[in-house]
Amino acid sequence: MSRIMGLDVGDRTIGIAISDENKRIALPYENYFRTSNKNDVNYILELCVEKNVVTIVSGLPYNMNGTLGPQAEKTKNFLKLLEKKFKYSDRIESTINIILWDERLTSMAAEKVMIAANLSREKRKKNIDKIAGTFILQGYLDYYNGGM
Length: 148
What we know:
With 148 residues, the protein is of the alpha/beta class. The protein has helices at residues 37-51, 70-88, 106-116, 121-144, and strands at residues 3-9, 13-19, 26-33, 53-60, 97-102.
């Protein structure tokens, strides 16, 4: 069965979450430490093949006033590279859709959850991006499944 992947694209890491096979629950997967756009795109492609991902939901970092800032442009540029890699790859059988999702306040929500779970500052720092990716993906999955 196919899955949906959530991404929280940052300068140093990409927080990755992957749905269950029923596409109802977002599960934290990992914090991928970025090395280069080429390596990062190849890694995401291979992960999509391995996990049978059909859709990627990437957080788009809007400013609180609804405008897009510099990080949003970096995210969009990375996703364009990813889309191009998918288009010309013989590793995937069909197109993987990329959806942009408003990620305002996801990092704050992830931080609050980890504080409530009594995680140390060090553990929170190590996990913040994949938890934010999970919030992004869960928001989309709730929408995708009609708010259930």
